[in-house]
Amino acid sequence: MPAPSDPAALGALYQELILDHYRRPRNKGELADADAHVALKNPLCGDEIEVRLRRDGDTVTDVKFTGRGCSISQSSASMMTELVRGKTVPEAQALLRRVAELLGGSADAATDPRLGDLRALSGVARFPMRVKCAALAWRALEESLREEGRGKR
Fold first, then answer.
1. Which domain holds residue 143?
2. CATH code (residue 27)
């Protein structure tokens, strides 16, 4: 990975990570017998995301997404599924808060190794309309975590 002191190289690497998740999304598809299913749409740009998750007790055992939209929304969803699978609900909620900080422009969050590839979206904070794209899957996850146990929708 390029040194953070080389912003151009780091920006190019981040762009490649975003495009990789967009072109080869992880965990995209249906999830049979999901405990929760939330569909959200960003009416300003047309991005659509559906998040389905399965839990065993307090642990997210599986999470998948479907949808369409820009590279930011789709890559963020792909990265989200990788980060939350296997996490407990409190750990997933902590990630939600940290991602909000990242998308809000936190320099500390942009270097947090717990966020993995998602750190590539740190530059989105400079573009408020794109923040909504990056946050869409995370909003769906947040609702999914609340929904589990109340029935599927």
1. 7-147
2. 3.90.1010.10
In a domain, 56, yes or no: yes
* Number of domains making up the chain: 1
From the number of C-beta atoms within 10 Å of its C-beta (0-12, 13-18, 19+), residue 72 rates as buried
Give the span between the Cα atoms of 63 and 54, in whole angstroms. 6
Q: Which amino acid is at 153?
A: R
Give the dihedral of Cα atoms 145, 69, 117, 64; nearest 10 deg. 40
Nearest-angstrom CA–CA distance, 153 and 149: 11
* CA-wise closest residue to 133 among 52, 66, 49, 51: 49
List of residues 6+ apart from 115 with CB closer than 8 A = 83, 95, 98, 99, 102, 109
The SS3 of residue 149 is coil
Number of H helices, E strands in the chain: 5, 3
- Whether residue 152 is contained in a domain is answered as no
Asked if residue 125 belongs to a domain, the reply is: yes
The pair of three-digit structure tokens given for residue 38, joined into one six-digit string: 């939330």
Quick: pLDDT tens for 6-62: 767 767 778 899 999 999 999 999 999 999 999 999 988 899 999 999 999 999 999
